[in-house]
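ESCALATION

Customer reports they have been waiting on this structure for their group meeting. Please prioritize. Original submission:
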Amino acid sequence: MGELKIENLHVAVDGQEILKGVNLLVKTGEIHAIMGPNGTGKSTLSQTIMGHPAYTVTAGTISVDGQDLADLSVDERARAGLFLAMQYPVEVPGVTNAEFMRAAINARRADDQQIGVLEFINKLTAKSDFLGMTSEMTDRYLNEGFSCGEKKRNEILQMMMIEPEYGILDEIDSGLDIDALKVVAKGVNAMRSDAFGVLMITHYQRLLDYIEPDFVHVMMDGQIVTTGDATLAKELEAVGYAKLRDQLGLDIKLTDEEV
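Update from on-call: job pushed to the front of the queue and completed.
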């Protein structure tokens, strides 16, 4: 069993501290959800794990299966088993979905173990059919002209094709209608295994109605302030962040929207 381990992580953006001592352990075979109000550092955490250069680690460590990620580039972290499904997937004109996915798969394999064309096509067809995606989508340029729902489904297709050890899903439910949400959840649930761990970042309970987490963490003001099982998300949906903050005795200011 592998583990993604985050210890006392402090992160700054443009000199402003956003994460203020995050501790988290995600093992393969587990699904973790992180919830919290806007601006509390959830997406900062996901981007920092993947090594985005705009996020500066000022203290603490991130490791995968005992390997410190501090000096690894984004692509090296991907080769180490990490995958980030982004909140806002970017468009890449000139590179088709199929080309991108085959290159990503082979980047994690030794030169003498590259995936063959026929094996790749068969796998892509099976995974696309499972997610209700047409071959036309995989032939299009990466995310170019895709709707929000298509982009998010495409992120899940990429994850199913690449088969990472850890999937980080940054608000994968954002902007999705109920049908698209069910497809995304279907893909994530199909990957559940002892060899795959998930860290989901979300604002809302509705995603967790379809992907049941083993652990739910609540983040406020750059820290994880409480952890529970799936029932914690339901309780949070009922009482809101402000009441939870007061119950925990925290001196944290929330925006009007979150109060």
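Sent to customer with the following note: Helices lie at 42-50, 74-79, 97-107, 117-130, 135-139, 148-162, 178-190, 230-248.
Escalation resolved.
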